[in-house]
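Hypothesis: this fold can be encoded by more than one sequence.
Test: take the structure tokens below, design a sequence, compare later.
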């Protein structure tokens, strides 16, 4: 067993099985083989009275090895190993630290007793991979932790704390934070007299009615996903089927999910998200610059939201505005946002004060002199940005990173207004910036590798998923949005309605369609503000005060609860423009809407890759999942494009007269 990640040692009458399989002790084949052998050793040794299962490194088993899911199975399977531990005539104790997740949680359920350090977390996040706990978790959890906790853990996927686990019976005892192994051995000795306590023999605890209540309460959140319902069904099965039949039901559902497209998409995104953090051509030898203090220019919605990310992570922020009232308004909104989170119980009141205490509002750019990173979030106008960067160049200390939050503008041109283009890059946050997980880090021609590494590192620190983008109009996300918006508008001229186009997108799984999005963001964004100059539908809507939800009307009419309804006024404007353009109105099928709004996005993704503006296709998927709410169960536009098939996409694009990207055409063969 010298190469095995599993080792054993004997402490008097207790055998300790230890896994050391970095980084997260995933339960791959070698671990399962080792665990099995460790148990056999314990059973074969008469001197051993109890067994402790523990892990070295940063965490207890964080789950099955996801990379094995697409490979041929290797025995012993995890459920078999867990059954063997549960059947042990000698009590087995799980000693938990870090995160016992998925198969790791199921291992603890196969053990007879559980002890954990107070900082440990236990969870079954399989649902986030489009799966369910497939090694007995859905059947053992309702017995050990109760139905209510089981359904929340399995269908919701969030881990619970060690103290909550203790409260519900998922953990029997808390250990000292630094004395887990010794405490587990002592606990194992206490358990010898009690003997084994197989989870499968315990009755299911709790009220089965909580299952339906949970399903109802979360129906909206689960829309479109297959896995939550399957998790709920399995927990429900535990309440009425004998254990072995429940296990058979779990297995059948697990396999169905595993073979399905949704889980493949969700697993793709799990790895894509982690891959996105890696920068091609930059090795581990490039170190980030320290970021101890951040400056943000602009206290509007964007600047305020950006600042909150850093404050929440404990990093001091100096925020600059031009006028006192705008500064007061901006910081007031930030406080209100924090207080709203506190009112919902997401923050403690003292955390609000802690965060706001790290904020220094000022009217002077000079106060940014000691910042390590400055993010400009002012009006989207090149001349203004260049002026600001020119000033920053004279104010900021050497080595400070100068970032722009621009959504479209040329970072290289901005960088050229400084004498230090190597320190300039884009950090494009998505609105609301304190909530949305995506950050596009835009790499300019001259951006230094360590500046880029710093931006990617700080993104992780503030809880963002960062993707490297090249300089081009709209970078990755907004560039792909453009053909969709253009085509959606053309469809209206040809006979589709805003409601029809939006419905196709919502049915696809997007949080909203193109016109709902315009109404939410503001139809007037970028409008010239002259009500007499009407050249397109947007001008006509804006001239009539139809600026979107904020004025109660946009592409839709809104009531006081912001419920949309179709608008006769909008239809008349559309009819008028359609007549002027000579477009012949016809019936538009939902299929055509998909072909004309989603296929061009895939096509644009291929162009972005051809031009080297994204490092890899999976980065584009990450952008759309975390920045625009593309349904994760469809894996992002590039993954979805592959599922649809390049041939079909090319045929669809050509049918509607689009120019097809060379690489996409080549893929179609
Ligand atoms: N299998 C294979 N690799 C895994 C893995 C897993 N279960 N979990 C993490 N990894 C890999 C990551 O891909 C990453 O690899 P990389 O360094 O090459 O990019 C590395 O381990 C470190 O992971 P993170 O960057 O995510 O490290 P963090 O410290 O930020 O987070 C974690 C640690 C909370 C454990 C997080 O990795 C995580 O949530 N992992 C997945 C947990 C999970 O989903 N478990 C259920 C698996 S399915 C299952 O168990 C089925 C069973 O019911 C039969």
């Amino acid at each position: 067993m010298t190469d095995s990640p599993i080792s054993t040692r004997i402490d008097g009458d207790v055998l300790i099985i230890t896994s050391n399989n970095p980084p997260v002790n995933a339960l791959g084949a070698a671990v399962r083989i080792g665990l099995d052998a460790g148990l056999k050793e314990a059973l074969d040794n008469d001197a051993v009275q109890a067994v402790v299962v523990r892990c070295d490194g940063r965490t207890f088993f964080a789950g099955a090895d996801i990379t094995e899911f697409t490979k041929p199975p290797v025995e012993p399977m995890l459920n078999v190993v867990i059954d063997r531990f549960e059947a042990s005539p000698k009590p087995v104790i799980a000693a938990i630290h870090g995160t016992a997740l998925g198969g790791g949680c199921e291992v603890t359920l196969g053990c007879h007793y559980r002890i954990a350090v107070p900082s440990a977390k236990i969870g079954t996040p399989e649902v986030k991979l489009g799966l369910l706990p497939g090694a007995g978790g859905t059947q053992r959890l309702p017995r050990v932790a109760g139905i209510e906790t089981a359904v929340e853990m399995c269908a919701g996927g969030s881990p619970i704390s060690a103290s909550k686990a203790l409260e519900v019976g998922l953990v029997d005892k808390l250990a000292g934070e630094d004395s887990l192994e010794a405490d587990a051995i002592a606990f194992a000795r206490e358990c010898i007299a009690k003997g084994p306590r197989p989870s499968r023999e315990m009755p299911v605890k709790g009220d089965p009615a909580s299952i339906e209540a949970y399903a109802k309460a979360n129906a909206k959140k689960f829309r479109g996903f297959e896995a939550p319902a399957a998790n709920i069904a399995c927990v429900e099965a535990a309440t009425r089927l004998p254990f072995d039949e429940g296990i058979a039901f779990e297995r059948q559902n697990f396999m169905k999910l595993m073979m399905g497209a949704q889980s493949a998409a969700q697993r793709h995104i799990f790895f894509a998200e982690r891959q996105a953090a890696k920068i091609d051509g930059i090795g581990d030898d490039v170190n980030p610059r320290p970021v101890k203090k951040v400056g943000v220019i602009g206290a509007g919605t964007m600047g305020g939201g950006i600042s909150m990310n850093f404050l929440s992570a404990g990093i001091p922020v100096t925020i600059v505005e031009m006028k006192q009232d705008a500064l007061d308004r901006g910081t007031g909104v930030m406080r209100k946002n924090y207080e709203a989170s506190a009112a919902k119980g997401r923050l403690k009141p003292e955390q609000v004060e802690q965060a706001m205490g790290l904020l220094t509002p000022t009217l002077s750019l000079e106060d940014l002199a000691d910042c390590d990173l400055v993010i400009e979030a002012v009006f989207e106008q090149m001349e203004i940005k260049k002026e600001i960067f020119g000033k920053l160049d004279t104010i900021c200390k050497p080595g400070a990173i100068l970032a722009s939050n621009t959504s479209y503008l040329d970072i290289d041109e901005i960088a050229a207004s400084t004498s230090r283009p190597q320190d300039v890059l884009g950090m494009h946050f998505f609105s609301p910036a304190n909530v949305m997980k995506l950050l596009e880090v835009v790499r300019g021609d001259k951006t230094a590798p360590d500046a880029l590494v710093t931006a990617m590192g700080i993104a992780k620190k503030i809880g963002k998923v960062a993707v490297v983008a090249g300089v081009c109009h709209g970078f990755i996300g907004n560039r792909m949005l453009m053909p969709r918006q253009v085509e959606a508008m053309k469809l209206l001229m040809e006979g589709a309605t805003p409601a029809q186009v939006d419905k196709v997108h919502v049915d696809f799984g997007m949080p909203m369609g193109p016109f709902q999005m315009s109404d939410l963001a503001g139809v007037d964004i970028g409008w010239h503000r002259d009500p007499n100059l009407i050249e397109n539908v947007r001008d006509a809507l804006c001239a009539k005060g139809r600026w979107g939800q904020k004025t109660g009307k946009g592409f839709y009419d809104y009531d006081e609860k912001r419920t949309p309804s179709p608008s006769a006024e909008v239809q008349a404007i559309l009819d008028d423009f359609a007549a002027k353009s000579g477009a012949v109105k016809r019936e538009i099928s939902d299929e055509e809407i998909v072909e004309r709004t989603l296929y061009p996005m895939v096509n644009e993704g291929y162009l972005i890759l051809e031009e080297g503006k994204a490092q890899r296709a999976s980065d584009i998927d990450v952008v759309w999942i975390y920045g625009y709410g593309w349904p994760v169960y469809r894996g992002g536009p590039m993954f979805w494009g592959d599922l649809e098939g390049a041939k079909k996409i090319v045929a669809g694009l050509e049918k509607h007269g689009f120019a097809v990207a060379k690489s996409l055409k080549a893929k179609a063969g």
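The chain has 28 helices and 19 strands. The mean pLDDT is 97.
Hypothesis status: open.
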